[in-house]
Design a protein that fits this description.
The complex is a heterotrimer. By secondary structure, chain A is of the alpha/beta class. Chain A has eleven helices and 14 strands. A six-stranded parallel sheet of chain B has the order 2-1-3-4-8-7, with helices on both faces. In chain B, strands 5-6 form a two-stranded antiparallel ribbon. Classes of the chains: A alpha/beta, B alpha/beta, C alpha+beta.
């Protein structure tokens, strides 16, 4: 067992998979010599060499297209898109090429690749470098979408993503890179499509993702201490495949649902979950399903403004307690 | 008479023939079959048996046939939505291709992809791509894999003149040169980008050839209607790539006999332009080439007859094939064959 | 016999065309490639040619008239008729292969993708009071006095009823009812385990499809069947002698190992004929004695789950025949190729656990069967052997053979007699005669 930062967990996960399978290769901008602009891939070039860990020009379309061509013909590439906002630059591959190829070719081709990207706000990079875009990939049939909240989940879910034969979009959170967590020694492989109940509770279900998870946990502690509300907290971890069984199992127990989402309001990932719950667990609900999200605005660079925009533990406590009391 | 003709063939086999009679016969057969099959596709479209859209290669057969003959079976080809010719040229059966256009179960992808996405991994046809320029970086990826694993295959990437103006073209060329990838980029310049003359939308006269130097590549602009010329260029580029010397960019000048797609009967072309190009019809040129090399007329006719027979056989097989069963709707979204996004 | 001339597909989004003028009239012959008519859409004007030769016998859409794409505009006699499009053949949906992490949940319909909650439990607004869905369900399912409850709330000046309000109302009147979850996900509602908390050192491993199916089936069997286990020691020396003699030739001919299992299976088939209550199925109310003997053999899939493929009519096979059929089934099981036929129709099961040296195993019955045989490690051990010259200690191949049985179907004496007879068959049968 060791305490690792989230960023070290990224390197650890990639190294674990690259040691195991020679077909795993890694490309991106400044990922090799510089170890990544977030220092999340330090040491990989030294261990695996310049044939397997490659720096590219600033060419997002070429990066993803090359990853796809290599994946289609026998390798298992990991491609980095530095800031998740840049997915918009190469979105043709994410929307049109990766996820449709197996279907259109009637199963002749597969695209076993992982796109890892620095997602989320709270780091004062401004509107075009701070977005939470995990919901963009959730909308497209044929992808898998992951967003871990802890170092151990980074390792386990990255390993699962690399071993998955489908295109996986892996959202690392920029503001979580420096958090620490316990990671067991040895090989770690998790399972995509499984949510984790981090805190058991009776009164309401709070579902969160990535950076919202520690905030939801903090809020649950205070809801219990200050309001006598015993919240169950679930870390979704994967948007696709979605572990609806764990979520529904929790909601039928508590009768109340809250989501905490960093993405802006419209069409955030929580909207889909609320829809499923309202459909399948309607007669188990004892009150409205409520989404706690960033407002539907671009993110400001100013720190105090950004801090109010993203859901905080305060805001979660306030909203949950108010709604639970029937207001 | 027969003896002297055979003697003539033998003479030519020994002197000036760097291509060889077998390859020539193969290229002729491919061009004839592509022409006949595409004409049948046109008819079937008018009969509403081919639905949606269909981008024909009539007039551009030489490029696909020559590369088809020059490539090795393990080489990987990537083409655009105008990919019927390239699919046939790699050896895919006519009934599989026409069947896919007709969206029947016998089709290459059982109707799931359609005309614009013809794929046959077994033949090295690694997809036909409808997003302009999207497949150029993908071809680079296949080449990267070959380079990494030490595989001997080359990626060959076909696209039109309009592609040279899109971002992915420039990213892919730069990427391929910087990583010295075994990929051949083939621009089929048929002088029109959809309905617009290429000169109206491109900064340089030769959309690919004049840009090669921007990537440190040799300028290669050739007559795309003479299969021998294309073959030689293909062979050189493939050898270069296979030898680890990196990519090539080849611009083949050609002409499209019909419109951009079935919607377009091409009335935007200047008078006489089509007629001038019909004089340079690749099939006309190559038929004469075979005669020049002493192939007897009846052998040529046999190839042409057999081609027509194959088209009829394929058409009958496709008409007798049902559409795919409805259960195919949700199959193969994911690698496990299913479509489950939730439990 | 004539071919239809149709309004052609003129463009990707064009739905109809107007015939500008015909170049041919009724009675004209045409050759393939000859122009028939000129047609105009909002995008283009083109000439339409004849696909094949024939004579125009009828013109249905004339000059200046409009028709939708695909409509018949004329008939060409002497040309081959249009073939109808064949109907698609039925095919098993491959989507079922997908590994979804369902916990006993029914599969999703493609066009709904949800398991919509069923039931109608009354209106949300009743007498000016808003009632939550959960509360409404409790009221309806448990027959709570709704009028009374609404009046009670109204008197208290409250405009809302949630579940705690219903439960409070009931407690005040001395009754309390707990709620079972309603959503389809909780189909096995009472079986839903409490949500498992997961710590940072823990790892979540979802059950695979096979594991889940196995788990649910075994849990169900365990819950409903009163299991009793009996075992006895069998001397396999005679079997082993024949086995050792035959195994090399068998391996050479069939590429398969010759283990004890085919012998045990054959012996079981023989004895099952004599004990018909054991080769049977039950629903807890009646016993169905099965005419065929179909033996299910438990196969471990590399510790990832169990399947029990069936040897149909195993009593008609010889020992080598059983060994061969078994080899094929195991191969199919390990490569995931078992079909529905391979899994259905079992009347008795055998599980062989000897590989790891265990002494005995009390297996779980494969409902609706009534018994299951287990064999464990067969090893050289000291045994007392009685001869005419006296009793001696000798090394013999000994192993425990056990049976779990459904005590609703028959009693211990019956089962014990079966085992005793099985032992006798294994120890005294002329096994060499199985290998012609």
């Amino acid at each position: 067992m060791a305490e690792l930062t989230y960023r070290d967990a990224v390197a650890r996960a990639i190294a674990q998979e690259m040691r195991r399978d020679e077909r795993v290769v890694f490309l991106g901008e400044d990922v090799a010599k510089a170890g990544g602009v977030f220092k999340a891939t330090v040491g990989l070039l030294e261990e695996f060499g310049p044939r397997r860990v490659r720096d590219t020009p600033i060419s997002e379309q070429a990066i993803l297209g090359a990853a796809m061509g290599a994946a289609m013909t026998g390798l298992r590439p990991i491609a980095e898109i530095m800031f998740s906002d840049f997915m918009a630059v190469c979105f043709d591959y994410v929307a049109n090429e990766f996820p449709k190829t197996r279907y259109m070719t009637n199963g002749q081709l597969s695209v076993p690749l992982v796109v890892r990207t620095g997602n989320g706000g709270g780091v004062r990079f401004g509107a075009q470098h701070s977005q939470s875009i995990e919901n963009w990939s959730m909308m497209i049939p044929g992808l898998k979408v992951v967003a871990p909240s802890s170092p151990v989940d980074v390792v386990g879910l990255m390993a699962a993503a690399v071993r998955d034969n489908n295109p996986v979009i892996f959202h690392e959170h920029k503001a979580l890179y420096s958090i620490k967590g316990e990671v067991p020694d040895g090989e770690i492989v998790d399972t995509l499509g499984t949510a984790k109940v981090l805190r058991s509770g009776r009164d309401c279900t709070i579902i969160a993702l990535a950076m919202m998870v520690p905030r939801a946990m903090e809020a649950a502690k205070r809801l219990s201490a200050e309001h006598g509300i015993d919240a169950e907290v679930i870390d979704v971890r994967c948007l696709v495949p979605l572990d609806t069984q764990t979520i529904l199992g929790s909601v039928v127990k508590t009768g109340r649902l809250f989501t905490v989402e960093e993405n802006p309001r419209l069409c955030g990932w929580g909207a889909e979950i609320v829809s499923i719950v309202a459909d399948e667990a309607f007669w188990d609900l004892d009150g409205p399903c409520v989404r706690i999200t960033t407002p539907h605005i671009p993110l400001p660079a100013a720190d105090h403004l950004e801090d109010i925009a993203l859901p905080t533990a305060d805001r979660i406590v306030e909203r949950v307690s108010r709604v639970m009391n029937g207001d | 008479m027969a003896a002297s003709r055979a003697g003539a063939r033998q003479r030519n086999a020994l002197s000036n023939d760097d291509i060889g009679i077998d390859k020539r016969l193969e290229m002729f057969r491919l061009q004839v079959e592509i022409r006949d099959c595409e004409k049948r596709a046109y008819d079937l479209f008018l009969q509403n048996l081919i639905k949606g859209t269909s981008h024909l290669s009539l007039g551009q057969e030489a490029i696909a046939a020559a590369f088809g003959a020059a490539m090795q079976p393990g080489d990987k080809s990537f083409c655009t939505y105008r990919g019927h010719a390239h699919t046939l040229a790699r050896g895919v059966g006519m009934e599989k291709m026409l069947g896919e256009l007709m969206l029947r179960d016998i089709g290459l992808m059982r109707g799931k992809g359609g005309s614009m996405h013809l794929t046959s991994v077994e033949h090295g046809v690694m997809g036909s791509y409808a997003i302009i320029g999207g497949h150029l970086p993908i071809a680079c990826g296949s080449a990267w894999r070959a380079q990494y694993l030490g595989d001997p295959d080359v990626a060959v990437c076909f696209f039109g003149d309009g592609t040279t103006n899109i971002g992915a073209f420039h990213e892919a060329l730069n990427f391929a040169v910087v990583w010295k990838l075994p990929v051949v980029f083939v621009c089929e310049n048929n002088l029109y980008m959809e309905y617009t003359p290429i000169g109206d939308v491109t900064a340089v006269p030769h959309p690919a050839g004049d840009r090669a130097s921007a990537y440190g590549l040799e300028r290669i602009v050739i007559d795309g209607n003479d299969a021998d010329i294309v073959y030689r260029s293909a062979r050189t580029a493939l050898e270069r790539a296979r030898g680890g010397k990196g990519p090539s960019l080849i611009e083949c000048l050609t002409y499209r006999h019909s419109g951009h797609s079935r919607a377009d009967p091409a009335k935007y072309r200047p008078d006489g332009e089509l007629d001038r190009w019909l004089e340079r019809d690749p099939l006309k040129i190559y038929r004469q080439r075979l005669i020049d090399f002493g192939i007897p007329a009846n052998e040529i006719s046999r190839i042409e007859e057999r081609s027509r027979e194959k088209v009829e056989e394929a058409t009958a097989a496709c008409k007798a094939s049902p559409p795919a069963p409805e259960t195919l709707l949700t199959a193969d979204v994911y690698d496990d064959g299913g479509w489950a996004w939730r439990n | 016999m004539g071919a239809n001339v149709v309004m052609p597909q003129l463009g990707e989004t064009v739905a109809e065309g107007r015939i500008v003028s015909w170049f041919k009239k009724v009675g004209d012959t045409v050759t393939a490639g000859e122009r028939l008519f000129e047609v105009e859409t909002d995008k283009v004007t083109i000439d339409v040619e004849a696909i094949e030769a024939g004579t125009i016998t009828e013109i249905r859409v004339g000059d200046g008239a409009t028709a939708p794409v695909g409509a018949v505009v004329a008939i060409l006699g002497g040309a081959s008729a249009n073939e109808p499009i064949p109907t698609p053949k039925a095919e098993k949906p491959t989507g079922d292969k997908a590994r979804d992490v369902a916990k006993a949940a029914p599969s999703l319909i493609a066009f709904e993708e949800v398991r919509t909650s069923r039931g109608l439990f009354g209106k949300a607004l009743q007498d000016g009071i808003r009632v939550t869905p959960l509360a409404r369900r409790l009221i309806a399912e448990q027959g709570v006095d709704l009028k009374g409850l609404l009046a009670d709330r109204s008197n208290k000046g409250l405009d809302r009823i949630a579940i705690k309000d219903v439960q409070a109302y009931l407690s005040e009147r001395g009754t309390f009812r707990s709620m079972a979850p309603h959503a389809a996900t909780a189909a096995s509602a009472s079986l839903l385990p409490p949500s498992l908390p997961v710590g940072p050192r823990d790892q979540v491993v979802a059950f695979s499809n096979i594991r889940q199916r196995t788990a649910d089936r075994l849990a169900e069997s365990w819950r409903t069947i009163p299991h009793v286990f009996q075992a006895l020691e069998v001397d396999f020396t005679a079997v082993d002698t024949v086995r050792k003699l035959q195994k090399d030739a068998f391996k050479a001919e069939h590429g398969l190992a010759l283990t004890f299992l085919p012998f045990i299976t054959k012996a079981a088939c023989i004895v099952l004929r004599e004990y018909p209550e054991i080769n049977a199925r039950t629903d807890g109310a009646r016993l169905i004695r099965c005419g065929d003997i179909n033996i299910g053999i438990a196969v471990d899939l590399s510790h990832k789950g169990l399947v029990v493929p069936v040897l149909h009519n195993a009593d008609e096979l010889t020992v080598p025949g059983i060994a061969k059929r078994l080899g094929r089934l195991v191969e199919k099981a390990r490569t995931g190729k078992l079909g529905a036929d391979d899994m259905a129709g079992g009347t008795y099961s055998i599980t062989n656990n000897g590989a790891f040296g265990t002494q005995f195993t009390a297996p779980i019955i494969n409902a609706p069967q009534v018994a299951i045989l287990s064999s464990d490690a067969i090893r050289l051990r000291p045994a007392v052997v009685s001869t005419s010259a006296g009793d001696f200690i000798a090394p013999r191949m000994l192993g425990m053979v056990g049976q779990s049985f459904d005590h609703r179907a028959f009693d211990g004496a019956y089962s014990a007699a079966f085992l005793s007879r099985l032992k006798s068959v294994l120890e005294t049968r002329k096994w060499d005669q199985e290998f012609g």
